[in-house]
Amino acid sequence: MVNNLNLNIKKGDIYGFIGPNGAGKTTVMKVILGLLFANSGEVSLFGEPQNIRNLKRVGSLIEAPGLYGNCTAYENMKRFSILGGGTDKEIHELLELVGLKEATYKKAKTFSLGMKQRLGIAIALLGNPEFLILDEPVNGLDPMGMKDVRDIILRINKEKGVTFFISSHLLGELEKISTVYGIIRYGVLAEEITAESLARASEIITTQMEIPQVTVNEASGKLNIATDISRSAEINSKLVKAGLEVSELGVISTSYEDYFLQKMGPVNV
Questions:
Q1: 209 SS3 class
Q2: Distance (Å, rounded) from C-alpha 127 to C-alpha 84?
């Protein structure tokens, strides 16, 4: 169940949607794609209400790619291109983009999990979508597979200008690529943070206040500042004057993981 969720995904963003299993991440994605219908509220895509026309500008990979095991990577792409559009030239370009050029004519049932995920992303890119929705794209992958998928996302975002909405419960992976973070708990958006604002806050503290030991944790939206607690009012004043909102200041007594778990705690809905 999702309640009063207000997400703001801007063009060019890599929006990391963080939350534990069962928090409502997949439900939100299915509502955006028109696979589920909300009881209230509305979905706006590209500045207008959700409709068949603008949904054609969205690609997606929800849960796991639905591949034909006895078909090759090319044959899988060809089948889906009938629905989503795409020429043979585009199919080969996309397979090369996701690192599957050498596996073009190999059957999908022989692929590793990471290769299947990459083929799923290639299929989602058919028709040249402007907005790509990926549900737990690195779930179950080994470290090398995670890096491969991460590099593909960054490359597509940079080279094609595709906006991403990516869900995960793995903070460390989203932290490496996301420009914006939304933390969801029990179907409610607990917090929305931009990587840019955190970097700017860190710069202000290190340069204007001459506090060199500042650690940025983008996935939790928190700065770890190694200084005397007596400077907390000064820090707050500097950040507010710079137009940055400060929601909390205090002595760190928990780890970042604990902070995240606190965000996932009980909430009244």
A1: coil
A2: 6
Tens of pLDDT, residues 3-56: 778 888 999 999 999 888 888 899 999 999 999 988 888 899 999 999 999 999
Ordered by start, the domain boundaries in the chain are 14-191, 195-263
pTM above 0.85, yes or no: no
Identify any residues that bridge with 16 across adjacent strands, giving them in sequence order. 166, 181
Q: Quick one: which of 189, 250, 199 has its CA closest to 221?
A: 199
> Within the chain, where are the H helices?
25-32, 52-55, 73-84, 88-97, 113-124, 143-160, 171-175, 195-208, 232-241, 256-263
Q: What are phi and psi of 68, to 5 degrees?
A: -95, 105
Domain 14-191 in CATH: superfamily?
Answer: P-loop containing nucleotide triphosphate hydrolases (3.40.50.300)
d(CA 10, CA 73): 32
DSSP letters, 44-101, are EETTEE--HHHHTTEEEE-SS----TTSBHHHHHHHHHHHH---HHHHHHHHHHTT-G
